[in-house]
Amino acid sequence: MRASFGEHNLTAENHRRKTALLSRLEKAAIYRHNHLLVKPSGENLWVCFFSFRPVSRSGQFTTESTMMIKGLIAPLLTPFDDNLNLDQSLYNDLAKHLLANGVSGLAPFGTTGEALSVSHSERKAALEGLVKAGIDPAVMIPGTGLCNLPDTIDLCQHAVGLGCAGVMVLPPFYFKGMSDAGLYDYYAQLITGVNDQRLKIYLYHIPQVSGVGLSIDLVKKLHADFPEAIVGIKDSSGVWDNTKALLEIDGLIVYPGAELPIIEAIRLGAPGCISATANLNGTDIAEVIDLCLAGNWELAETKHKKVCAVRLMFQDYAPIPAQKALLARSTGHSAWGNLRAPMRPMDKDKLDALASGLASEFGMHF
């Protein structure tokens, strides 16, 4: 089946589900012990938490607010043309397609987006290209974490200046075995260096890839000491006990890095997830999340079984080359199959086996 990623509008069903969900949430007065204000931003669902705390004995209050994306966030795949330059047109088309088909937000330049194979200047130009193409920066949480503070500060300032919802920041990952105190200093100096009250940092915990993890104690301290800047975390550890412990940190926004634990995570207060397979299975994953947020747990659990099975099938292959190759097939744009070294394309036999399995077991045709 061949599809084109041009200008898309929300399908009637997606629009109906999001409208119904918005209506239900607007009637809710309390969520996780905070006042809840919900508003639409385009067709994307936003939640704003206002937490109030006394700052003087006179009873005056300050208001802290954090806008967060509620639903499925897609870590965008990054297309390269035949000269291995970033293909802005294909990038824009994928972003529009995903947002029109159930996805609530975008996370450019994460692991799935081959972020560490994309230069500093390319990242900035690509984000600007998305905005120029009409993508609302308020639905984006781009990856900005590098091993040095000056470049990380610059990428964060650029994203904040564009109006992005937040930034997703890896710990400095080259030097291994660093203490929590050293990692704390890195984030503290990052906040000072960016020097912008609009900065909203989502920590990125993926120790099996980065080689540097963020302990629960460190996350607690960072969030406690910088509650207006360190607002959330993406937990891609794949360890449920870790995700659960993060969800127990008061006021911290926690996005699991996969759809596998999403039902239990939402029960504990997660707003959604950031999942690589959103690039190809976004509508189904988004539906499960929407059902959970609407309180339709039984139907969500039924549909979750298929979503999990699709995810696990992809995990048996190299997920980034696999998804890009399938996207090349489905769109007819061969450039989607291009990868920058050290990534290598999938063998055709493996790709055919994956495509056959997705078609026969789940009706997904590529």
Summarize the structure.
With 366 residues, this protein is of the alpha/beta class. The protein contains 13 helices and 11 strands.
Describe this structure in words.
The chain is of the alpha/beta class and 366 residues long. The chain has two domains: 13-67, no CATH class; 70-315, TIM Barrel, CATH 3.20.20. It contains 13 helices and eleven strands. It has helices at residues 12-26, 88-99, 120-132, 149-162, 180-194, 207-210, 216-225, 240-247, 262-267, 278-293, 297-315, 319-331, 348-362; strands at 30-31, 34-41, 44-54, 61-69, 71-74, 105-106, 167-169, 201-205, 230-235, 253-256, 272-274. The strands form three sheets. It has a four-stranded antiparallel sheet with strand order 1-2-3-4. A four-stranded parallel sheet has the order 7-8-9-10. Strand 9 (230-235), helix 8 (240-247) and strand 10 (253-256) form a beta-alpha-beta unit. Helix 3 packs parallel to helix 4 (149-162) and helix 4 (149-162) packs across helix 5 (180-194). The longest helix is centred in the last third of the chain and has 19 residues, at 297-315. It is globular, with a radius of gyration of 20 Å.
